Fold:
Amino acid sequence: MPRKLPPLTALPAFDAAARHLSFTNAAAELNLTHGAISRAIRNIEDRLGVQLFERGTRSVKLTPAGAIYAAEIGTALDRIGAATLVATAARSANVLTVSTSDGFAGRWLVPRLYRFHRDNRDIDVRLATSGVLADFIRDGIDIAIRYGAGGYEGVVSEFLSEEDVSPVCSPELLKGEHSLRLPRDLKHHTLIHDNFRIDWATWLQHAGVEGINSSSGVKFDSATYAVEAAVHGEGVLLGRSSLVSADLAAGRLVRPFDLALKSRSKYYVVYPEGALRQKKVKAFRDWIFAEMRADQPDAHRRSPVPDRPSRPRDRG
Structure:
């Protein structure tokens, strides 16, 4: 007997709208227009003869029938996605696609990847860097390193590492007439900013320093460029421990002060349910945990502080 099915091509639009409770956000996720999302959902409702959403002037919410349908459709799409991963695993068994931020990739992951290749010569790594959350199915991602609060929906999320933030600079800035000896000496130096959630105003407040314009200096959207600027002596950066550890170890950067702030956000290794059954995913997962254990920063004084509000982005 033939299955009674809704318009299958419209289901991703319904699923996204149900998760976001927003046609606009669903459209952004799927790279469609608001009108396309609305038409897709209307098409499903017409086929089923059931209203799935209550539409307000500026908001939408699921009807009771819509909530039940959304839960079942979401589960079905997850199973289809998992089946797709299994079906395509053999074709790309030796290619591993890793999603992370450009900062974590450039400053931590890439300098260490040669060790993974040395021990896993049959696996080719492809890096996908972006400032937004990657979709494992749509973007062909095998495993991701994400920076945030954890608890990502529909995937396995394992805690990888915490993040400390403290001023770092070139050793050259510890010399000369305005050498960095005390936090108040920062008034003689350029402050380097990236798009991290702990900023100079927060650090200076915890250090008890006043009279410094915390918004002055050089600003970078990329953490990679911000670290490079600090290495070349262009100023003082609030360095994220994972992104500056190699430069600190090599002596390209130093910590002039002891005070470090501990971010509420953390690094997580994220992958779809069942992904560890693939040799390449398990090999990378085990390797990155081993690397992080071997690369823990030196113990120094830390103060827990809340992250400042930010747009939801995948920072690592």
Observations:
- The chain has three domains: 8-86, 89-162+265-299, 164-262.
- The domain at 8-86 is CATH 1.10.10.10 (Arc Repressor Mutant, subunit A).
